Automatic annotation (TrEMBL):
<keyword id="KW-0285">Flavoprotein</keyword>
<comment type="similarity">
    <text>Belongs to the ferredoxin--NADP reductase type 1 family.</text>
</comment>
<feature type="binding site">
    <location>
        <position position="233"/>
    </location>
    <ligand>
        <name>NADP(+)</name>
    </ligand>
</feature>
<keyword id="KW-0249">Electron transport</keyword>
<feature type="binding site">
    <location>
        <position position="404"/>
    </location>
    <ligand>
        <name>NADP(+)</name>
    </ligand>
</feature>
<keyword id="KW-0496">Mitochondrion</keyword>
<feature type="binding site">
    <location>
        <begin position="221"/>
        <end position="222"/>
    </location>
    <ligand>
        <name>NADP(+)</name>
    </ligand>
</feature>
<feature type="binding site">
    <location>
        <position position="106"/>
    </location>
    <ligand>
        <name>FAD</name>
    </ligand>
</feature>
<feature type="binding site">
    <location>
        <position position="41"/>
    </location>
    <ligand>
        <name>FAD</name>
    </ligand>
</feature>
<dbReference type="InterPro" id="IPR055275">
    <property type="entry name" value="Ferredox_Rdtase"/>
</dbReference>
<dbReference type="GO" id="GO:0005739">
    <property type="term" value="C:mitochondrion"/>
</dbReference>
<dbReference type="Pfam" id="PF13450">
    <property type="entry name" value="NAD_binding_8"/>
</dbReference>
<dbReference type="InterPro" id="IPR036188">
    <property type="entry name" value="FAD/NAD-bd_sf"/>
</dbReference>
<feature type="binding site">
    <location>
        <position position="397"/>
    </location>
    <ligand>
        <name>FAD</name>
    </ligand>
</feature>
<feature type="binding site">
    <location>
        <position position="62"/>
    </location>
    <ligand>
        <name>FAD</name>
    </ligand>
</feature>
<feature type="binding site">
    <location>
        <begin position="177"/>
        <end position="180"/>
    </location>
    <ligand>
        <name>NADP(+)</name>
    </ligand>
</feature>
<keyword id="KW-0813">Transport</keyword>
Amino acid sequence: MLRKVLPTSSAVKVARKCVFRNASTAAPIRPRICIVGAGPAGFYTAQYILKHLDNSDIDIVEKLPVPFGLVRFGVAPDHPEVKNVINTFTKTAENPRVRFLGNLCLGKDFTLEELRERYHAVLLTYGAEQDNTLNIPNENLQNVLSAREFVAWYNGLPGFENLNPDLSGKSLTLLGQGNVAVDVARIVLSSVDDLKKTDITEYALETLSRSRIDTVHLVGRRGPLQAAFTIKELREMLKLSSCTTRWRADDFDHVEESIPNLPRPRKRITELMVKSLAEQAPNNVPPAGRCFQPIFFRSPVNFVGSGKVEAVEYVVNRLADGRAVPTEQRETIATDLVCRSIGYRAVSVDNHINFDARKGCVNNAGGRVLKRNLTGSDQTIDDIEDKYETGLYASGWLATGPTGVILTTMNNSFGVADLVCRDFNSNTIRLNGSRPGLDLAGRPYVSWHGWKAIDSEEVRLGQAKGKPREKLTRIETMLQIASNASD
């Protein structure tokens, strides 16, 4: 529902671990916590706190009307099993001690100072939503996009429904070899009939059905032994119907002899690449159907084209102690569309956040947000005494940078949540009075009931098309549906 404050709990629970009381009265004071961001980091943090800090109340504040962040908007539509974690997040959100407050944005609808005044603790978990760039000539040519934009487009992130990537050419180049880049390659090279069974957006399906792209280059600056994609994603590409994987044999010089000394995960994926290389047809035999071509030891130095990208110029690298070192050699490879996939960075949405713009994350020590002006005895981060903002934390990619998978985020968030619980239990966060929570008067927010109404409508629309759901992409539509929801 929209524009209504829901009670945080219908009854006061009997504390099992710790009950906080006001020194002057017998009435218990409930720790009130605000989590900014309803993605995996936010939900995992809430899950842990609910279990380990009795009588705490949690508000999860999200700028979109819908929850789940990258699980909803980042996970590939043909990986529904990864999205099963939504079931766990839903149980957390439906705990009577939790409120979901969607359509409210830090830095726009409220300030960090306001949150810190109205809650005992604030956790910033709003992720990383800005692309890293290459900063090379002609990067602003038409048809040079980011993989993040492309993923947001086919996954229905509001604001990207009109991206309209140009798939009329014959080739796509992905710069970067992580799983996000492989996801984009797989979606572009997959059969539309297979994608119709997923929750990919209908407008993306229509565009992909008209796609003429038959070759996808996956370009990395280092070699096969340093490839960032995982074995699961590589297996999926190798098994893709009507698609041939074509390796460059020269990229694998001396790779096979290194296999016995590799750690097991790296050994398995290298063995799979070498096996695929050995089985591929000779280079003089053109691939049948679509082609996936990983290319190693190349760093882009220039986009070539007049108005629209026509090719990418690369410097050829060699490895030195695992690092890519440029040589004098160059190679130019024609392409019709480019997607950068070289990582993300967070942004500062409030000028009171101690933010490191160079690293693209909040300045923190293990999840505790550091003060801008350190006050400890030796002015070093190692001496953490009196150097962090009491009651202010960060977790997930906003704290660590965009690294790892959902499991990585879970472990990080549990660790930060444990700090929060310990800081309450040790009285580092003093419960010197109750806190009112966010003032919602006049703020058109979406409650969990509102989200459930949106969810039901998406499922209904999807069922009519034989899909698990058809995501709504217009925020105005979401808000209208939420406003009509009832308790």
